[in-house]
Amino acid sequence: MKQLETKILESGKVIGDDILKVDAFLNHQIDPVLMAGVGKAFATAFKDMGVTRILTLESSGIAPAVMTGLEMGVPVVFGRKSKSLTLTDGLYTAEVRSYTKQTVNEIAVSKNFIEKDDVILIIDDFLANGQAALGLKSLVDQAGAKIAGIGIVIEKTFQPGRALLVDQGMKMVSLARIEKFEEGRVIFAPADI
Ligand code: 5GP
Q1: How far is the CA of 162 from the centre of ligand 1 (A)?
Q2: What does the entry list as the binding residues for 5-phospho-alpha-D-ribose 1-diphosphate (predicted)?
Q3: Mind listing the pLDDT tens digit for each residue in 81-92?
Q4: Most buried residue among 6, 30, 42, 133 by CB atoms closer than 10 A?
């Protein structure tokens, strides 16, 4: 997605060898016009697949997921990372190792919001080692629902996430694919769209 690649080049910051900071438009401040484009792109890529719900992870997946849900006319559910007094039982849970924080979080979603006849589209902001996406897949599997595929805003192709997910038979669409960081610059691989 050209508009996204341009934004990454304009305002993404490479941190160390393998992290891209995109606080200016996705992870802290959000660019609504760009997110609307992201929503349209995912809705087009996964149209005619019978998607009934979108599942993402708080907090950075919510903006792209909501814009996709708006385009597709389906509800958006987010897996929660923190314990909540109002969300205590009736949960599907999975353990996810956080790539950026290097901690293991339990993620949880209420059993009310994934049903066995659902066809779920999983959306996340980044794909690195695939742990967040696999955790989300586990929540869907526990509910006995189907997965239409996985939509990723920014994939780092030099990390093993895609291979893990594709090996499990999942359709994956990434809007920007980063092949490498070279002296603080982002080098793209061809995107899926
Ligand atoms: P994975 O679970 O695929 O290893 O990592 C994906 C998760 O880690 C995403 O949900 C995202 O929050 C975070 N993440 C991984 N790589 C990056 C990165 O380069 N930049 C940012 N901002 N987040 C990342």
Answers
A1: 13
A2: 128-132
A3: 977 767 677 999
A4: 42
Does residue 99 line the site of ligand 1, with CB under 6 A?
yes
Positive/negative CA dihedral, 173, 50, 95, 38: positive
**What average pLDDT values come out for the chain (193 residues) when binned by 10 residues?**
97 96 98 98 97 97 98 98 76 93 92 97 98 97 98 97 93 97 95 83
CATH of 2-189, one of 3.50.50.60, 3.40.50.2300, 3.40.30.10, 3.40.50.2020: 3.40.50.2020
Count CA atoms closer than 13 A to 102's CA, side-chain side: 1
Give distance in angstroms: CA of 130 to centre of ligand 1: 9
ipTM score of complex: 0.98
Rounded to the nearest angstrom, the distance between the alpha carbon of 131 and the centre of ligand 1 is 9
By most ligand atoms within 8 Å of CB, the mutation choice from 125, 153, 157, 164 for ligand 1 is: 125
